[in-house]
Amino acid sequence: MLPAFWKEFLVFLEKDKKSFPLLYSLLKQLSPIELTNERLVLGCENQGFKFFLNTKVDEIERALLIHSKQRLSVSFFVLEKKTKKEAPLLSFQPAVNDVLRIANLSDRYGFDNFAVSSTNQVAYAASQAVVDSLGKAYNPLFLYGGVGVGKTHLAQAVGRKILENGPQKRVLFCPSEQFINELIEAIRGHTTQNFRKKYRKLDLLIIDDVQFIAGKQTVQEDFFHTFNSIISFGGQIIMTSDRHPTEIQNLEDRLRSRFSQGLSVDIQEPDFELRTAILLIKAKEKGIDIDINAARIIAEQIEDARAVEGTLISIYAKIIGKKTSIDLEAVDSFFTGNAEKKIKRVSPSDVIKAVCSYYHIKQSQIKGETRIDEVALPRQIVMYILRNELKMKLDQIAFILRRKDHTTVIHATNKVSRLAVENPSFKEELDRITRSINL
Questions:
Q1: Which residues, 6 or more positions from 221, have their beta carbon under 8 angstroms from its beta carbon?
Q2: Is residue 104 part of a domain?
Q3: Residue 240 and residue 130: Cα distance in Å, rounded?
Q4: What secondary structure, in 3-state letters, does the chain show?
Q5: Which of the residue ranges 6-15, 206-215, 332-341, 366-375 would you say has the lowest mean pLDDT?
């Protein structure tokens, strides 16, 4: 089918050179590699030719649409040079980055730059087992934990290793939001069959933040069948979430059961040793020279794994042109700058305690159902501070305060912002609270 389709397309281009000048002379030099209902993969001789072809993608896709009445996305691979006796298809050897890009994987995530400690060693070992026995060991593998603990990194590392071992494997990393949006678009455009072909015969499907499909009936229905189809074909499923399957609200029982049938692993907040290791790995990746003792001080001060990387970059930015490496003096200067005390990470718990103390209410009331003004306003202030000062995600805030969804958080932050503008005395209250928690 593929050679015939390609031959017919070239004939079409040769006959209509007026509408598509130069395309025929360019494309006749390529080798067709793969054709599906959604995409066409073509092989070219070198990176320079590939770069040029990428500037012609829109024109090529338009010509394909006119010829085949089908909307296809076009991508290119650089073919490995072989002897003349070998067929083009046999000589096809895609670059690693191209394979990762098609699978929607980042080249930043691998097992070689994933730091392991007691807080994540079970998840790491389980992920390695999945690589060694895809579709058989721990299926599905459900990784859950807070923000920045390495769930996505580890899940993508599995996908990357699978493709490095076998580039022909069908692997896809998919944030749950992408799955939802693609399903909605497929329903709207009457292309659900294409959608199902894309997802249901994969060797490995990785769904990131799977908790967001909860409460969406049609999405849960389709994901249930996708899950069953992949498992029945011997494929592997990995999911990440901010909570255990039993704690995901509004999740259908049959999905909850499926999610729990494999292995669910809790990844804890990184300990001091792990934060130090992460910092040293990030420094090596970015070519930053850092003293080991300086790295330890940063890890002591910053508890969030993602903030560790941000702090490293911030300190490095301050010493550029002055020093060649980050030493104890540079770190101490960063944390004690402007005669302030060393930076202390503020947690959601710190915010709740401060607000409850200020308004003389119990912490249990903040997370409770009561809507009386004496509790509702402090609760809204907590949401405002978590969102505006700690930069937390809406769904995380809703989960911490046991609200039904993120719209409650949006309403709260908007209300507190408005009150701070309209009421000077309220603004002063808000400032006193934030100062009390060193914000």
A1: none
A2: no
A3: 15
A4: CHHHHHHHHHHHHHHCCCCCCCHHHHHCCCEEEEECCCEEEEEECCHHHHHHHHCCHHHHHHHHHHHHCCCCEEEEEECCCCCCCCCCCCCCCCCHHHHHHHCCCCCCCCHHHCCCCCCCHHHHHHHHHHHHCCCCCCCCEEEECCCCCCHHHHHHHHHHHHHHHCCCCCEEEEEHHHHHHHHHHHHHCCCHHHHHHHHCCCCEEEEECHHHHCCCHHHHHHHHHHHHHHHHCCCEEEEEECCCHHHCCCCCHHHHHHHHCCEEEECCCCCHHHHHHHHHHHHHHCCCCECHHHHHHHHHHCCCHHHHHHHHHHHHHHHCCCCCCECHHHHHHHHHHHHCCCCCCCCHHHHHHHHHHHHCCCHHHHCCCCCCHHHHHHHHHHHHHHHHCCCCCHHHHHHHCCCCCCHHHHHHHHHHHHHHHHCHHHHHHHHHHHHHCCC
A5: 332-341
Burial of 44 (0-12, 13-18, 19+ CB in 10 A): buried
pLDDT digits (tens, 9 = 90+) for 250-263: 999 999 999 999 99
Same domain, 122 and 57: no
pLDDT at 341: 42
Q: Which residue, of 228, 247, 266, is where some domain finishes? A: 266
Domain, as residue range, for 24: 2-94
Q: Are residues 119 and 187 in the same domain?
A: yes
- Using CA of residue 271, residue 273, residue 275, residue 277, what is the dihedral sign? negative
User: Residue 221 falls within a domain, yes or no?
Assistant: yes
CATH number at residue 164: 3.40.50.300
Q: 264 pLDDT exceeds 80? A: yes
**Strand duo 236-241 + 263-266: pairing:** unpaired
